[in-house]
Amino acid sequence: MAAADRGYDGIPAAQRRAARREALLEATLDLISESGAAAVSKRSVCARARLNDRYFYEHFADRDVLLSVLGQELTAEALRAVIGSMLLVGGTAEDRVRAAVDAALDYFTEDSRRGRLVLESGSDRVLQQEWLSGIRTVADAAVGIAPLLIGEHRPADEDLSVTAYILVSGSVDLLAAWLRGDVAISRATLVDRIVDLTSAALDRASQADGAGQVDATRAD
User: Fold this and answer.
1) Which residues partner with 11 through β-bridges?
2) Of 8, 149, 200, 216, which is the most buried if we count CB atoms within 10 A?
3) pLDDT at site 150
4) Is 21:69 a contact under the CB 8 Å cutoff?
5) What is the pTM of this model?
6) What is the mean pLDDT of residues 79-98?
7) Which residue has the higher pLDDT, 215 or 79?
8) What's the pLDDT score for residue 22?
């Protein structure tokens, strides 16, 4: 095995690289939480992570790439938490939706840095791009998991996609407003309102599908 692969102190080189990457991302979250996205630069992140500049370039071409990767990873983590909660919870579609909303709120409130990143999304070009991309990613995932909520017989993907996008974009904007304190309601009420809206949309989707099947039968 080459020396580069063995690493140091018995720690494999790949593991050390992964740890440095994680340290840079964590440092970026810290800086955003404390001083906003404007405080993030290659120099400030390296200083916070206590790493040399060359380790920054080992993973990220520049600040924009760093912020883009951070946004993508947080979206992926949040999505895993949400979908995982829906798969674990039994019961009705409403029960699964409630579990998903709770999981999303847990994700963004258990670590206050994540909530701050949400609030900073509108103040930085790269973070805003990732925020919008994240909404699309979550909406697409919602379409994919729709059979779990409304069964295999469902509306056309085009209709479902529009509904999912409206619900996801509205819910995340409401989350941001709640985190800012612009919406003075309890967490329980926030969950209830999002669940109510989503359940109503699911009911409408199911009814629309049923109507479509009836029309198709009459046409035959």
Assistant:
1) 8
2) 149
3) 81
4) no
5) 0.84
6) 91
7) 79
8) 97
Q: Residues for the chain: how many in total?
A: 220
Q: Which amino acid is at 218?
A: R
What is the distance between the alpha carbons of residues 208 and 60, in angstroms, rounded to a whole number? Answer: 47
Give every CB contact of residue 97 below 8 A, 6+ residues apart in sequence: 86, 149, 195, 198, 199, 202
Distance CA 199, CA 174 (A): 17
The DSSP bridge partners found for residue 8 are 11
Q: Taking the CA of residue 173 as centre, how many other CA atoms within 13 Å lie in the half-sphere pointing to its CB?
A: 7
**pLDDT of 210 strictly over 60:** no
Return d(Cα 185, Cα 166) in angstroms, integer: 22
Amino acid at 80: R
Pair of tokens at residue 43: 């120099």
Name the one residue in this structure whose structure tokens are 């690289």.
17
Four-point Cα dihedral 73, 75, 76, 77, nearest 10 = 80
pLDDT of residue 53: 93
pLDDT value, residue 2: 46
Let me know: does 117 contact 32? Beta carbons within 8 Å.
Answer: yes
Domains, in order of start, for the chain: 1-60 (1.10.10), 62-219 (1.10.357.10)
